Amino acid sequence: MGNNTSQKFAQQYEMVTEWVNWLLKDLTDDDLRTELAPGKNHGIWILGHLIASDDDFSLFMGTGDPVYPEIQELFGQGSKLQPPDKYPDAKCLREKWDSICEKNRKIYSELKDEDFDMPHAMVKNYDTDYFKTKARVIMAWQIHQAYHTGQLALIASLCGKSRY
Question: Is residue 159 a contact partner of residue 34, using CB atoms and an 8 Å limit?
């Protein structure tokens, strides 16, 4: 039995990750301080949030603990947006991003198609959990990643670096 679905999910993850990296390559550390609009997400927060979220992916897949639990309070779901100076510097975040991408590539490479209909590892009540299965978690994670990547693309445009 092949793992066609696993391969497609891994390819989709790689595509969105490449998009983020493509944008980050052109955005300077100073550009990442740019806000989408006054008082709205800036690039530092978006990058940190992608790291925090993608770091949590392993919890839902049942493959280990987050590597950077210390950034959950700063960038995790429900965190309050702070000025860019209140966060780790962009260089540090770029390194963490690269590390988390490698961690998740490994997770994707080890997934089997038969895993997708299994409950994700954080299910407390299957009947009320919206995500329920590993496949739904993967789909939601990748949509979330693409959403915030679009925000980084807007920041690139605001900084005069749009390639679109």
Answer: yes
Please give the CATH number for the structural domain made up of 4-158.
Answer: 1.20.120.450
Structure pTM? 0.94
CA distance 164 to 162: 6
Q: Are 71 and 96 in contact (CB under 8 A)?
A: yes
The neighbour count for residue 26, using CB atoms within 10 Å, is 12
In contact, 164 and 153? CB cutoff 8 Å: yes
**pLDDT the model gives residue 3:** 82
Give the distance, in angstroms, between the CA of residue 93 and the centroid of all CA atoms in the same chain.
12
Sorted by where each begins, the domain ranges of the chain are: 4-158
- A 10 A CB-CB count for 36 gives 16
Tokens representing 64 are 């280990």
Task: Name the packing angle between helices 4-26 and 90-110 (round to 10°).
Answer: 170
pLDDT at 126 over 70: yes
